[in-house]
Specification:
By secondary structure, the chain is α/β, with parallel strands linked by helices. It is 23% helix and 26% strand.
Length: 366
């Protein structure tokens, strides 16, 4: 069967059972907390020898007691159904106590229209006729007096063929006359701090904006490049772009800003990395690259992936408001909260907790 975006939800005994997001239009009552990551290291089936960072991230996600795990693409390596099954079993074991939502990325799309992927993730597919299935879906969430529409979109236009237009028509029907606040999950971002752009993702956002305007989209969550990142295009009331792709695959340098696009990393996340570098035992070259000093004068400031890889994951939760957290690790061993924000209609996106919280600091403010 031709399956493009498939969700697996296997609720494994968490205190509050997460409703079936795999059913398009599911009605959900807050609180709801979702951990998000992508670009996992998959060497030797996530072995501790080859992929300690990925296993550490999955452990930290579990210890933070999220209700669900959202995998935003590039989390399996082999195209063999047997190997896929073993890899997915590892993920399920590591995510015991959570529901899992799996959204395929470019790696999974190499697998002949995801036929084998569909066999493994064999639940909650939406029948769109002619023995075809798709997984672009949405949920409606109620949080006190606030209502949210949560969209899970497939950004792989070329691979989808004619399904691309079908997804856009479906999306138009969801957002037309929609007065709710909106959160969007997708594998690829319309833009990144690196300067990379993905036109199909922007095309999907344009469908939403044409129907709702800019003010209803609060958060765009994506995997993107192999590091965590976050930025606001203009003001604290714009949509926050939350990059959660630091799942353990070899990291690349993280741009602090992109002068051509006038994009800058979120100032609190920037402060976290500045403090990390200036107080850590890193080379002078790493500091120069970050500060655009020395041999790097005039160059785009970057966080060196060789010494300070921006591995990590994100949390998105609804509980008397919308809250996000970015957790950072260098190696999957120790973790720190690099960014924690909440959105309110009065203040927009604003700081929720102190910048740095290590796993040895259990009393994190609520």
């Amino acid at each position: 069967m031709n399956v493009f975006t498939i969700f697996l939800l296997g609720t494994l005994g968490f205190a509050q059972e997460v409703p079936h997001l795999g059913s398009d239009g599911a009605q959900i009552q807050a609180p709801l907390s979702l951990a998000v990551t992508g670009n996992l290291c998959t060497g030797s089936l996530f072995s501790s020898k080859y992929c300690p960072t990925t296993l550490g991230i999955l452990r930290d996600i579990r210890e933070e007691k999220n209700q669900g795990l959202v995998l935003l693409g590039n989390f399996v390596k082999s195209l063999s159904p047997k190997i896929w099954s073993e890899q997915i079993s590892t993920l399920l074991n590591e995510s015991t106590g959570m529901s899992m939502i799996a959204i395929p990325g470019s790696t999974e799309y190499k697998n002949k229209l995801l036929n084998e992927f569909g066999d493994i993730f064999g639940t909650a597919k939406q029948d769109i006729g002619l023995n075809r299935f798709a997984g672009w879906q949405h949920a409606r969430l109620t949080d006190g007096n606030e209502s949210w529409t949560v969209l899970f979109l497939d950004s792989h236009k070329n691979e989808m063929g004619t399904k691309w237009e079908e997804q856009k028509q479906w999306l138009s029907s969801i957002v037309e006359d929609n007065k709710e606040q909106i959160v969007i999950f997708m594998d690829q971002a319309p833009q990144e701090l690196s300067g990379k752009k993905h036109a199909p993702s922007q095309e999907l956002l344009d469908v939403v904006y044409q129907s709702t305007g800019l003010s209803q989209v609060r958060l765009v969550v994506f995997s993107g490049s192999t590091h965590i990142q976050s930025f606001l295009p203009e003001t604290s009331f714009d949509a926050l772009y939350l990059g959660c792709g630091g799942g353990g695959k070899k990291a690349i340098d993280l741009n602090i800003n992109n002068k051509e696009q006038l994009l800058k990393i979120h100032p609190l996340l920037q402060s976290y990395f500045y403090q990390k570098v200036l107080e850590g035992d890193f080379s002078e070259d790493v500091q120069s690259q970050l500060m655009s000093s020395g041999d790097y004068v005039g160059k785009t400031p970057k966080l060196s992936s060789k010494e300070v890889p921006a591995y990590g994951w994100c949390s998105v939760s609804f509980d008397n408001g919308l809250h996000i957290t970015q957790r950072h690790t260098l190696d999957g061993d120790s973790f720190a909260t690099a960014l924690s924000l909440s959105f309110t209609k009065v203040n927009g996106w604003s700081k929720k907790v102190s910048i740095i919280q290590t796993e040895e600091s259990p009393e994190e403010p609520k």
